[in-house]
Amino acid sequence: MEIGIDKIGFYAPHMYLDMNKLAVERNVEPEKFTIGIGQEKMAIAPITQDSVTLAANAALNILDEEDKEKIDFVLFGTETGIDHSKSGAVYVHRLLGINPNARAVEVKQACYGATAAIQMAKGHIALNPESKVLVLGSDIARYGLKTGGEATQGAGAVAMVISAEPRVMRFEGPSAFYSDDIMDFWRPVYSDKAMVDGKFSNEQYISFFTKVWKQYKEKAGLSLEDFEAICFHLPYTKMGKKALRAVIEEASQSVQERLMDNYQVSTEYNRNVGNIYTGSLYLSLLSLLEEKEDLADGSLIGLFSYGSGAVGEFFAGRLQPNYRDHLFTEKHDELFGTRKEISVEEYENMFEETLPSDGSSIELDIDADPAPICLSGIKEHSRQYVNKQRDVSTLSGGDSR
């Protein structure tokens, strides 16, 4: 049975910050951001967007009524969840009107969460071939103003429908994975900002990639020559390039050039959105699929997932016949084309605007947010979500009125 990605889409907030302008404001040479780490724009989430709404908006763009009926498992990968108990998947399940006879679960292991969800989805589909699984990777990356990690922030979500007989990509061959208990990046439960040992994290990312790549070659009997491209988890777009360089000399000159050229294409979306944690690898994949017009059916694509703390995995997928007919490129082009640039001052004010942490109620202005699904406030400790397309009035967390 072939199992893989039947649909894939993403959503990013409607505002962005130009990294050149942030660099000037921070008294940094702009090239440090645009070339050194490879970032052009940073998506900025208004207070009316959180990991739940970003995920729901990403899925809303790709699901039809048949999907909603056949989906019986919603898996939500995130490291910026909004509740210590209730999963983000449950909120998304209700906001989208998915079949009630479904499981809904949140998966956490830093940026690896969506990949773990995909592996769980594969097992579910193998046992239930008629089912579909909605996998979500949604996050808002926050390190703090004027911190070392500020330039690698971002916000967005990727949604994927995993099914049998997929139309975009089928997963192929074994996976190689590796775990180790390290402290390269983490976010304690009392903090809304991440903590990171940047140099150590970069070193571990490359180390994990070389370990799982070596293991994968032995398991699959494949080499770099067999891959048309390799997509990476991208906390910033230069990170994957550093890892690829660690193994690239295994290949001929022509293969090296092909992999590096295709790597550059795969970074286009990420360099204009920023770090979206669990969704970053799959945003990279989407960029490759939608931006490289001559990417042939049947191409084998490598995928490296890394979640700090740490878990790494390398696996692969093969593009299906006429896969391009099942992408949502026009919607994504429209999303990028309608975004609004904000100033550094506006960004700083928005960053400091946070939801109450003392149980207070609040009403938010969702009219200023063009997203179909928004956070409209907090009432009695419960986040209120609205799906504008269904003309639903403000709802309490799990209420289905």
Automatic annotation (TrEMBL):
From the UniProt record, which GO molecular function terms apply?
hydroxymethylglutaryl-CoA synthase activity
Q: What is its EC number?
A: 2.3.3.10
Highest taxon of the lineage: Bacteria
Going by the record, the broad EC class of this enzyme is transferase
- Boundaries of every Hydroxymethylglutaryl-coenzyme A synthase C-terminal domain copy: 256-350
**Which key words tag this protein in UniProt?**
Acyltransferase, Transferase
Q: Would I find Acyltransferase among this entry's keywords?
A: yes
**Which positions fall inside the Hydroxymethylglutaryl-coenzyme A synthase N-terminal domain?**
2-164
- Protein name stated in the entry: Hydroxymethylglutaryl-CoA synthase
Name its species.
Virgibacillus sediminis
